[in-house]
Every structure is written in structure tokens, then in C-alpha cells.
Amino acid sequence: MLCVALRTGERGMSAGDFDYESHGQGYAVQRRTDPRIAAQVHAALGEGRSLINVGAGAGSYEPEDRYVVAVEPSAAMRAQRPATRVPALNATAEDLPFDDGAFDAALASITVHQWKDRERGLRELRRVSRGPVVVMTFDGTALDLLWLGEYAPELFAVESPRYPDIDWIAARVGGTVRVETVAIPIDCVDGFTEAYYARPERLLDPLVRKSQSAWGFVDDADEVRAVERLRADLESGAWDARFGHLRSQPEFLGSLRLIIGLP
């Protein structure tokens, strides 16, 4: 039996390292579910009929063929969930208001790095799932596989330490764990930075960058310099001279990982 008594948070207070109340608008448009990534995520979740999605945001990667409980502490993000998704509960990863083993599976999609107490949050995921715990995250040691680091080194300098070590996460989500690299398709519709490995012009758009929390940790002046360097290299052809082969590369194996932990 599910315990659904909710802890109410203070409106406007951030539950993690990024203020989605002030800067979270536009995620539902820019950060959509990519169906090819979703297929890998859903396969990792297994065939259980109930799922808790923690740090659920606007609902990306939630399967539609099972019972889902979504948990999201940001009111701004909860408001962006489409009508086809279940309303999200106001709670945090560190304090899930559910009984032990309440769900067949648990999902945390590109969210663990933003939690205040990552260890407690991961242990909560494991506690409430009687089956798989699936964490989609980035490997901070592999961010430099993307060419963007040459234009915005400040971005990667602040972004890399945000991501917990993959092995560290694995040790907290299951007794048996496997890690999968997630291939990023050339026309990926989930607008994280690596999604534009073959479409560099998209990163010139401030609305695209606004939906990538990493830019919120970069000084405005550094962001302007990075964007103008990229713009200049695109106009001169220098980017294509070095990286133009990526424009026809069907997928990119970058830093995106799935960590699947079983009890």
C-alpha cells in the first residue's frame, strides 16, 4: 500500500543546485523525450507495472504503458507537465513519502547531479523500488568528447564536478549493476548540449542554452565570448574544417550513461 502523505516545501526554494523557479521555463519545449533514447530507458526499466520517476521535471522519458508516480520539487517544472502526463507530487529525492518496495521500478533522468544530498536520494530510490533503479546521467569525465569544450572551457570546468562518479552511483543503486552508453542520434530532440554535436548553430540560440542548466553556472561574459567564438568559426568555415564530418555522423557516443541497478 502506497503512503502518499506529502511533505510540503516552501514555494520558491530550490531543492537542488539550480533554481528552476527562476530559470526553468522552456524545458517542456527544448527538452523533449527523444524516442530512441526512451526505448533504451524503458527497456532498462523492465516489465514492471508501476514506476516512480524522481526529479521528473516536465515528464521526459516517462513510459505511457504503466502506472507512474512523478516526484518534482519545482513548481515551475510541475506546471510545464503536459496534460498527457500525471500531475507530479511536490517532494524531493531525499525524502520520498512511500513505503519500502512500493514500486516495481524507479527512474531518475538527468537529475541526480542537482540533488542536495545525492547519497540519501539514491538510497531512497533503492528503498522504494523492488526492481530496477535506472539512473540516466552524464559521465563528468567524458564531457570533453564534445567539441564545445574548445569554445566554452568555463562551461565544462563547472559542469564536470557537478556529476557524481558513475561507479559511485552504481554502488548505491543495486547489488547487481550494469552501465550502458547511450547513443545520441543526429536529430535528437532532447536539447542537452551533446544533442547538438552535429548542429552547432543551435547553440547560438539563447533559448536553447537557457534550457541547459550548465550555462547558469557560467559568467555572462564568458558565455558571450564562447558564443561569439563559435559564431565566428561557423561564419568563417573554421568549425566545419575541423568538425564538419559530424554533420553526417548518425549518432554520437558521448558522456550520456544509463546506470541500471538491481536488488
UniProtKB/TrEMBL annotation:
Domain Methyltransferase type: 53-129
Alphabetized InterPro entries for the sequence: Methyltransf_11, SAM-dependent_MTases_sf
One Pfam family linked to the record: Methyltransf_11
Gene Ontology MF terms: S-adenosylmethionine-dependent methyltransferase activity
Protein name: Methyltransferase type 11 domain-containing protein
Organism the protein comes from: Acrocarpospora corrugata
